[in-house]
Amino acid sequence: MATETRSMRVIARIHSDFPTKFGIPRQSGLVKSLRSRIIFEPEFRVPEAVRGLEEFSHIWLVWEFSQSVREGWSPTVRPPRLGGNKRMGVFATRSPFRPNPIGLSAVQLERVYLDDELGPVLEVLGADLMDGTPIFDIKPYLPFADSYPEASGGFAEPLRAHRLEVELSEPWRSMVPQPLLEGLLEVLAQDPRPSYQHDPTRVYGFTFGGMEVRFTVKEDQLTVEEILPLSRNER
Predict the structure, then answer these.
(1) In whole angstroms, what is the distance from residue 1 CA to residue 3 CA?
(2) 117-172, pLDDT tens digit by residue?
(3) pLDDT over 60 at 12, yes or no
(4) pTM of model > 0.70
(5) Which domains does the chain have, with CATH numbers?
(6) Torsions phi, psi of 171, nearest 5?
(7) Which are the contacts of 179, defined by CB distance < 8 A and separation ≥ 6?
(8) Based on the number of CB atoms within 10 Å of its own CB, is 205 exposed (0-12), middle (13-18) or buried (19 or more)?
(9) What is the greatest pairwise CA distance in the chain?
């Protein structure tokens, strides 16, 4: 029996400070100060389509893991936060490698405004999406129906408390634009390394807000070694 398929339309794309996957928070809301914009595709730049959305403090984004699209699928995956050594059922994880590469994120809606060229634009906080990620749908977050404070976090619960102490000294600190500083510090504290890499001599790097940030980690201390501004062609 053939697998039934459906197609979905991209309604918008998000624009964030992460041009690559490395460094992106592992869940939405972990770094609340990260600011992104959602810009609708031309067909959906209709102000009436977002009428009333400004009344909600948070929204759901349904989006595509556009860098993780694969032909086949596996019933088990290796969650990075478990060190990449233990297999779990794909439906018990938020791995991007799924039968349908769909992600779901709850983000704070900072404001809705109308741009002369782009139509309605949504400014959001706390997104965990790469720049240019296609969005399939946007729905309001309903706290009376969508929030379950007593819910169990399963095997992911112990991982939530893991944080690093971040050392960002001069001259690197002054190179970070003030609007990006808080977000960068929080991204680093969340430990952006793959969980299976613990070499204290290795220099890691990722791109954020037009900068390449290079750092080392020894035990629970992350030290920023260098920050390099990127040219427009490198961003």
Answers:
(1) 7
(2) 999 999 999 999 999 999 999 999 999 999 999 999 887 776 666 789 999 999 99
(3) yes
(4) yes
(5) 12-66+101-146 (2.40.30.70), 158-234 (3.30.2310.20)
(6) -85, 0
(7) 35
(8) middle
(9) 63
